[in-house]
């Protein structure tokens, strides 16, 4: 392992103090540190650029907590995967998020890794991102200029980038609570723990009796960013979860996706498996 040089750091305990540091002229040289499970790999020089200065945000309790607002589940950016798995509110309103959390790393990573870190790390293999994208979550960013909300559809514009400015922190995630909305999640990796996904998928829809509406299908590890499969969504829209629908959706998905070969998998495998996973999710939803 390359030698790690510890960069200078600050550990504010109030959000305003963190915003003030980020508002300095050279805000870009600060790198927020949440659980550190991605950042420590960068500090060690194994992946990506090490940070010039570290802004340790772990003590910002204002970024913790899970609650229900009138129309959304609101999750603080520092919420860990263990918090998500243990939350009765997540279990009740968005169980797919707890399911995704359960597939991430193993216990040590789940105790320390945060939902906000997964969102801001912006990896196309980030396992919670498809769930957030399928559910149309809003990412709330804060700075000395106040707060703004960015829809998940606009949050990851290109490979490993986000819509956040250098002077902003992700402070919370709002998952809209829509009556009769369902979402299911599936991750395919080499093994059940400590595996980066080869394909990860979340499928959301509103159940209108026999048929589905507002269908949103999001996938990770098949493109440079987490993506929606809009042509496949269009095929599913207004239909019910039958075998014929599943067959048509798989055909649409396999022609819509253009994954790449990389160290974790091949493009052909990803396309094939994505189709099979989608078929299974529709079959499970239809109960056939
Ligand atoms: C052994 C191992 C296994 C892993 N397995 C998985 C896996 O199965 N699936 C998966 O998706 N990921 C996995 N990861 C990656 C990592 O655990 C997750 O991405 C985790 O959610 C990162 O959260 P963190 O709090 O540790 O972020 P950090 O490492 O602290 O930060 C990650 C990035 O986000 C930025 N950041 C963090 N919080 C904020 C904020 N509130 N505002 C602005 N910027 C912020 C940081 O500056 C940094 O660029 C694994 C990592 C390891 C080391």
Q: Specify the biggest β-sheet.
A: 5 strands, antiparallel
Report the span from N to C terminus.
51 Å
Number of domains: 3
Determine Rg (CA atoms, Å). 19 Å
- Give the % helix: 25-40%
Classified by CATH, the class of the largest domain is Alpha Beta
Bound heterogens, unique: flavin-adenine dinucleotide
Unreliable runs, pLDDT <50, ≥5 residues? Answer: none
Reported by name, the CATH topology of the largest domain is: Uridine Diphospho-n-acetylenolpyruvylglucosamine Reductase, domain 3
The whole-number mean of residue pLDDT values reads 94
Beta strand count: 12
- Given helix and strand content, the structural type is alpha+beta
What general form does the structure show? globular
Total helical segments: 11
Structure report:
It contains eleven helices and twelve strands. The protein is of the alpha+beta class. Strand 11 (211-220) and strand 12 (227-228) form a beta hairpin. It folds into three domains: 9-56; 61-176, 2-Layer Sandwich (Uridine Diphospho-n-acetylenolpyruvylglucosamine Reductase, domain 3), CATH 3.30.465; 181-286, CO dehydrogenase flavoprotein, C-terminal domain (Enolase-like, domain 1), CATH 3.30.390.50. Helix content is 32%, strand content 24%. The longest helix has 20 residues, at 267-286. The mean pLDDT is 94. Helix 9 packs antiparallel against helix 10. The structure holds flavin-adenine dinucleotide.
């Amino acid at each position: 392992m390359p030698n790690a040089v510890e960069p200078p750091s600050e550990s504010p305990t109030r959000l305003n103090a963190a915003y003030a540091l980020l508002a300095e002229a050279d805000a870009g040289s600060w790198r927020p540190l949440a659980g550190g499970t991605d950042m420590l790999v960068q500090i060690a020089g194994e992946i990506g650029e090490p940070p010039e200065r570290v802004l340790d945000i772990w003590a910002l309790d204002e970024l913790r907590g899970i609650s229900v607002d009138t129309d959304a589940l609101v999750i603080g950016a520092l919420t860990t995967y263990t918090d998500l798995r243990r939350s009765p509110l997540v279990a009740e309103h968005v169980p797919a998020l707890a399911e995704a959390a359960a597939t991430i790393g193993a216990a040590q990573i789940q105790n320390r890794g945060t939902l906000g870190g997964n969102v801001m790390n912006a990896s196309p293999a980030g396992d919670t991102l498809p769930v957030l994208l399928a559910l149309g979550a809003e990412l709330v960013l804060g700075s000395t200029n106040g707060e703004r909300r960015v829809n998940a559809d606009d949050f990851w514009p290109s490979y490993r980038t986000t819509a956040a400015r250098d002077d902003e922190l992700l402070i919370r995630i709002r998952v809209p609570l829509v009556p009769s909305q369902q979402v299911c999640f599936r991750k395919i990796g080499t093994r059940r723990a400590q595996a980066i996904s080869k394909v990860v998928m979340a499928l959301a829809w509103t159940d209108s009796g026999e048929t589905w509406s507002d269908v949103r299908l999001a996938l990770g590890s098949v493109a440079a960013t987490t993506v929606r499969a809009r042509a496949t969504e269009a095929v599913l829209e207004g239909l019910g979860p039958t075998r014929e629908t599943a067959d048509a959706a798989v055909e649409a998905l396999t022609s819509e996706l253009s994954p790449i070969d990389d160290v974790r998998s091949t493009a052909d495998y990803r396309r094939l498996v994505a189709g099979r996973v989608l078929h299974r999710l529709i079959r499970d939803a239809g109960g056939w």
